[in-house]
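chain below, 266 aa
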Amino acid sequence: MRNLGLQNLGPRNLGLLAATLLTSLTLISDSLHDRSNLSPLETSLLNAASTYSTTDGHALQSLQTTGLSRVHDFLSPEDLAQLTTLAVHERLPTPQESSKGRFHHDMRTHHNAASLQHLVAPLRPLIATFLSPTATCTQLQILDTLPNSPTPQNFHADNTSVGVTILIPFSKGGVSVAQGPTELLVGSLRTPVRAVLLPGDALLFDSRLWHRGLGNETPRTRRVLVVRFDEVETPPPGVGFLGTAWVGLAGAACFRANDFFNAIIP
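prediction:
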């Protein structure tokens, strides 16, 4: 076998080689695979994880087996109106911009914090079973993704220990493919699933799942309520800069590999 001389490459050159291969795979998969609509596999996985009730056991079972659950119509029209009024008319905390066009308003000390937590109170029994009765709310925020902000996040995990992240869209139209849904890598094969949601739907996922928010390519702001629960003894994120960078690179590689093979294998 021909000696490719990889043993002579330093860490920097190996990093450049990996980046080049990943970029090439990205270009090939993007040119072959139409991602403007959900794939049949994505639709199947989302439907299997979906329910209209938080008490029928299906939401908990799905969360335990796949790390993902989608509850349709979790919020009532009145709750949605309350959320919209708060976001539009209240003075929100100064946001943090995590990536271009993505602004996080930390609501934990806001005077409406108790009202926001009350909205997810029906999920507390499920969370107490999946985690423990002492699990605490560690994140409460309103996330705005501005119009025409196409840049996606890097893949990441919210915690290295088990927790529950809850996303509830409340802007008009919810979160369509074009508005940049959360993309999760599900199962042992790290299959990419874009979680499209209608206003008032609740997406629950294990905080250890690798995921990212995709870009908003529409002329409308995408608004989502984000709530997370973690065990008191394992606060997020449980990982440093190097661990976060590794998850970002590994997640991107898993995503591109899945996307590439979905494109070339019918």
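Residues 1-17, 23-33, 239-244 have pLDDT under 50 and may be disordered. Helices lie at 11-32, 40-48, 58-66, 77-89, 113-119, 124-130, 241-264.
thats it, cya
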